[in-house]
Design a protein that fits this description.
Largest sheet: none
Helix content: 40-55%
Number of strands: 0
Shape: flat
Distance between the termini: 93 Å
Order of helices and strands: HHHHHHH
Number of helices: 7
Structural class: mainly alpha
Strand content: under 5%
Radius of gyration: 40 Å
């Protein structure tokens, strides 16, 4: 037991007598740090973009010329006929349907209302007899792949209406 107590007391003597020779202090006083001024960051970096103010111009440089004001022609064909067919279904006769006026829309997209699967089925039906399958085989395959995916998704993940069977 005496051996154990002597070892412990010797160990305590060693740990108490250990004093470091150097003490490192980054900033001894905060006031000294402030007196040095702000720290220099990104030394040597030159910013290519001018960030001195809201306008992109150099000091004492001539101003950029403003473009000459030209009023728009309100009676050009494009502006004069804009929206002419908006109320054709109300004001026109029954023979002309609004979907028949959509000249710049593909034929398979005119007047269709449905989900993506139904629209793609209609697109495939229209493009089947055209040279689209041979001219753009990758697009054709992507179309069929999307239809297959949506078919599986709609049959697995969506509910159907209640049946009376």
């Amino acid at each position: 037991m005496s051996w154990l107590s002597s070892t412990v007391s010797a160990f305590q003597h060693i740990t108490h007598s250990f004093v470091p020779k150097h003490s490192f202090v980054r900033y001894r006083y905060h006031a000294e740090k402030i007196a040095k001024g702000p720290t220099i960051r990104r030394y040597g970096y030159e910013d290519k973009m001018l960030q001195s103010g809201p306008l992109p111009r150099i000091r004492d440089a001539p101003r950029l010329p403003m473009p000459e004001y030209r009023p728009k022609d309100a009676w050009s064909e494009k502006r004069a006929l804009f929206g002419q067919n908006d109320y054709i279904d109300i004001l026109g006769n029954e023979k002309l349907h609004p979907t028949r006026i959509l000249y710049h829309v593909p034929a398979w997209l005119r007047g269709i209302s449905g989900n993506e699967y139904q629209i793609l089925i209609r697109k495939r039906k229209v493009l089947y007899n055209s040279p689209f399958r041979y001219v753009r085989p990758t697009k054709w395959e992507q179309l069929n792949k999307r239809i297959r995916f949506l078919y599986k998704f709609l049959n697995r993940k969506t509910r159907t209406g209640h049946s009376d069977q």
